[in-house]
Amino acid sequence: MNRAIYPGSFDPVTFGHLDIIKRSANLFDELIVGVLNNTTKSPLFSVEERVNMLKEATADISNIKVASFCGLLVDFVEETKASVVVRGLRAITDFEYELQLAQTNHILCPSADTMFLTAGLEYSYLSSTIVREVARFGGDISKFVPDKIAKEMYAKYNIVK
Questions:
Q1: Looking at the 3D structure of the chain, how many domains does it have?
Q2: Annotated catalytic residue within 24, 50, 128, 132
Q3: Where would I find the beta strands (DSSP E) of 3-161?
Q4: Is the full-model pTM beyond 0.90?
Q5: For a tag on the chain, would you pick the N or C end, based on fewer CB atoms within 10 A?
Q6: In a domain, 160, yes or no
Q7: 78: domain CATH number?
Q8: What is the mean pLDDT of each run of 10 residues along the chain (161 residues)?
Q9: Residue 43 sits in which domain range?
């Protein structure tokens, strides 16, 4: 079985993430969306909330599994027996950091390769950080995230829409 992992914080999952997920799902027998439980950050949503949001947002894609992980990505890759890590690139500025990660991960886990997918042009500016900032001030995030996620974000910020 050809299995890949698309890791990230997904705080929140955006239309850009969903674009990469859908395109990746078409390339592999199974795609595992790995939600990082990063203990050094203070996310808006808990890891359980992010997993549930992703499960709902990808429910129509049959070859996707959503799971959380903490620690090193390479350990999660080995645990799931994945052979590819999928990473999205929005702009050239992402590439240098992502290349360092890919090379480090390959040294730690030579059996796994990294594949980069460029974001669709309509999502090349989009990041979860930007979405959180706009939502925090009550701005319209309907073009950035699915409706249900927008509602959950506004609720987190105690904003009535």
A1: 1
A2: 128
A3: 3-8, 30-36, 64-69, 84-89, 113-118
A4: yes
A5: N
A6: no
A7: 3.40.50.620
A8: 96 97 98 92 94 98 97 97 96 91 96 95 94 97 97 95 79
A9: 3-125
